[in-house]
Amino acid sequence: MTRRSKLLSLVLRHSPQTIGLQLDAAGWANTEELLACLARSGKAMSLAQLQAVVASCTKQRFAFSEDSRRIRANQGHSVTVELQLDPSTPPDALYHGTATRFLDAILAQGLQRQKRHHVHLSASVETASVVGRRHGKLALLRVDAAAMVADGHVFYCSDNGVWLTDAVPVAYLQRLDA
């Protein structure tokens, strides 16, 4: 299941061309075409296996369209897509988990989107902690989202509850003890 989920992340977020897949402007792929491209590239997956990956992903990284004819990653793309999310008002505080080795750069430059479309933030300390631990020794940051909104910054909430924004300047960051 993990291997299939990582493969879907690769092709739906970063490199659809590795299997000859084409995403539309909003990041959607035709489900049948995805399965055919996977099979042609020697990575065959059945529709039932694909549905199981989507259903079992605790982070809800992927979503089917209402008719299940299309599938996409909810966020985290490094390829150009327009997720068509409407601006949303976030909770007053959001959180970002990272590795301590990145902390000096973040505290000097703020949170930058790097190769992705947005900075990813969590509504809970627990979720941010899980994300941060994946990258090494945890450093946890609190984002003053209320102040950012008051200062004109825009936020979006992806279908799986990840908060997105273009950048978080240093002035809105506070380090928390992990």
TrEMBL record:
GO terms for biological process: tRNA splicing, via endonucleolytic cleavage and ligation. One of its GO terms (molecular function) is NAD+ poly-ADP-ribosyltransferase activity. Its EC number is 2.7.1.-. The keyword Acetylation does not apply. PANTHER family: PUTATIVE PHOSPHOTRANSFERASE (PTHR12684), TRNA 2'-PHOSPHOTRANSFERASE 1 (PTHR12684:SF2). This is Probable RNA 2'-phosphotransferase. Belongs to the KptA/TPT1 family. Removes the 2'-phosphate from RNA via an intermediate in which the phosphate is ADP-ribosylated by NAD followed by a presumed transesterification to release the RNA and generate ADP-ribose 1''-2''-cyclic phosphate (APPR>P). May function as an ADP-ribosylase. The keyword Transferase applies. It is an enzyme of class 2 (transferase). The lineage of its organism: Bacteria, Pseudomonadati, Pseudomonadota, Betaproteobacteria, Burkholderiales. It comes from the Bacteria. Keywords: NAD, Transferase.
